[in-house]
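Teaching assistant here, posting this on the class forum so everyone can see the example we discussed in section. The complex has two components, and the goal was to see what a joint structure prediction looks like when all of them are supplied at once.
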Amino acid sequence: MEILLIGLLLLTGLMLGVLGSYLFRVPRVVGYIFAGILFAPDFLGGPLGVDTTEWTRSIVAVMLGIIAYLIGGAATITQLRQLGWTIVTATLGKITGSFVAVLVGFSLFGLAVADVPGWHLALLLAAIATTTAPAAIVAIIHQYRARGPLTTALLGMVVLDDALALVIFSLVLAGIDSTGFTAAIPVIIWEIVAAVGFGIGGGYVIERTARYLPEQELKLVMLLGGIILLTGLAEAIHFSPLLTAMTLGFSTRFFGGAHSEPFFRPLEQLQEVVFVLFFTLAGLHFAPAVVFSHAGLIIFYFLLRAGGQIVGAMIGAKLAGAPRVISHNVGLIMLPQGGVAIGMALMLTSVPRLGDSALLIVNIVTATTLLTETFGAVATRFGLERAGELGQATETAERKKTT
Amino acid sequence: MKASEWLKIHPVKALTIAGESSLQEAARMLLDDPEGRDLFVLDAAGRVSGHLGFWHVATLLLGELRPTHSLREMVERITLGNVAEHMDDRVMCVGVDEDIDDILHKHDLFQQHVERRVEDIPVVDGQHRLLGVVRLSDLLRDAINKAVD
């Protein structure tokens, strides 16, 4: 029945996403999440014979592995050097700001769930808060033909941002799995060393083997096989699957050089499928009772994340001597939170230690994703407009108004 | 027919560029020759060190007009770099003594075309120096004429 449900989720998600975007001008993810809610065990999932969501764990692990691989392979060393200090410091500021704000806020006034220390949940939510949804931002940049220093900084930042967010999330996950601070240090070191080692080794093997596989189809088999194998290995001998997949992407790009295209393009085409699955699966876990009983916390998380990243990015950009147009807008325009955050939250459902609190995190992240995708898009447009970087589309619209 | 003889019958101007050149310079060179779709990057000794196609240059320079961007494309859009950073450094070359009929058979040109959109096939001497190019359109024309005969 699970296979039937996956098919239904993908197609219903697609239909509701496209219709919602066309008829009500809401981001497609809203439709995706509603499709998931529709098939939750309490609604249509029950009659279909799907009473639990445990079967989704393996799918989420592999899908998040694919996303981490693409994030790792997004930039080469040469490109990273060209990004410039403004982008680096603004990203670090934005990430630190959102992480610290959510961590401190939730540690002081946050939630408490039986059997799970409050600071665990605060750390996990803080790590998830550092992510951004590039798709929503790029859609606005394209729609309004934005260009200028802020747009350039933004494009670089969303790439760095998700990479750093994955690193932070992996380390937090490793840390909370340990019994104490002293026990956590060797665990974290092992997680990093093993992930980097297996990732680099895997990338080298993939690139070398691909030279003997001229057909693109065979390369794709090898790539997916490599990502799934390493994700499974990471689970079996306890190192970070996300860091491994990210290092795999980075090293494959490094070893492939100018021939990297076939190692990424096919998976990039799968990305929307992955995100539809993430959002619909998040919808499956969606529990209205949990959301309504924690409405205050959801708004609290939204405000802390937004405030932290706006202030953090401003400080970071100012430290690099960025012009006001960047420092005063960059945190605001990066409000949308999306697939990576949802994927991380879903991944927590397979951490036995977290128990029911994982479900609570999924619901907080899903609800705030709905908020940030809707209001975040408005904030992105506002920030770009304030910076004077909205281009021809706006001019055309204004010309139409005057004629 | 050997590649060297083919070059005499079908003389085609090979477009060459240095690796340090900008992508805008590469685009200008391609636009100045309407039939040219492939640029070959030469090192100081005149050896072929890379290839850059029209499609690749166009997608890089017009990247901001794309409706969707992968993360890689976002980074590419803001860090354009020079020709050497984008060229394909594993160029399929034909030896001057190779038989022209073997080119399509021996090298998987069509797979290359799908991946890298190569239309000019460089002919090189023993030191890998560029002597000329065999154009795919000439090969096609020749094949059609042979079939008619």
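For the discussion questions: The interface with chain A takes residues 50, 64, 66-72, 74-79, 81, 85-90, 108, 111, 114-115 of chain B (CB under 8 Å). Strands of chain B lie at 15-18, 38-42, 48-53, 94-95, 120-124, 130-135. Think about how each of these relates to the inputs above.
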